[in-house]
Specification:
Blueprint (H helix, E strand, L loop, with lengths): L25 H8 L43 H26 L8 E4 L9 H5 L17 E4 L17 H8 L22 E3 L5 E3 L2 E4 L4 E4 L9 H9 L1
Antiparallel strand pairs: 1-2, 3-4, 4-5, 5-6
Helix pairs in contact: 1-2
Amino acid sequence: VGCSKFYGVKDLGREYDEKYEEWPSDLTFFETAMPYYINEDKFMAFMTTVTTHQTYNVPSTLGDKYLDLFENTEYSTTTKRYLSKMTELDKALGYMLEELDRAGKLEDTVIALFADHYPYGLTNAQINTVLDYDVNVRQEVDRTPMVIYNSTIKPVKVEKYTSLVDLLPTLLNMFDIDYDPRLYLGNDIMDEKYFGRVQFVDGSWQDSVGFYKATNGKFTQTNDEGKTYTTDEILAINND
């Protein structure tokens, strides 16, 4: 069917900021945009958040807004500014949940939340101070959150390797929508038959067995069960 209406900055009565580092507030965005659909009987809204974009290495309104929350941490000032911006996004999500609950729509709403890339404005070393795994290993820096949420669903953690192309087929199956899977690159991550493998732009790939680096043709086994791939199997995966 497609979108029935696109609301840009001017449509929402907002103003552009000339400074690149001054990305607007996601909280203000949600407060402004949600009244356009929350009172509808049925709705689908695609909302693109922007607050957490760089830069983080110079002062900015939202980058400095919540610095006091992290003053007793050992994070760099750059990292603290990123976390300050993340706090604004967190408050926006909190507002969305509160408004859906107030309108009596929370239990009947599914929220798909995903990040399209890691914070480019931080170095790997700075990212490592926040996470509990090393982003320098394989392509772990590209590991980003993807959450499908409904207040009535029992939480399930999916450990498979997936990517953004898998989100839409997963949602279509969850909603039992009739669609042609041949028209989609991704897979339903809930499907027991889907093994789980993610491909990178340079031809590298990773799954539960190991990591293949296309730039040097090297495969590294990463599982604890001793599983690996033969040369022919690696060639077949590359061709696929």
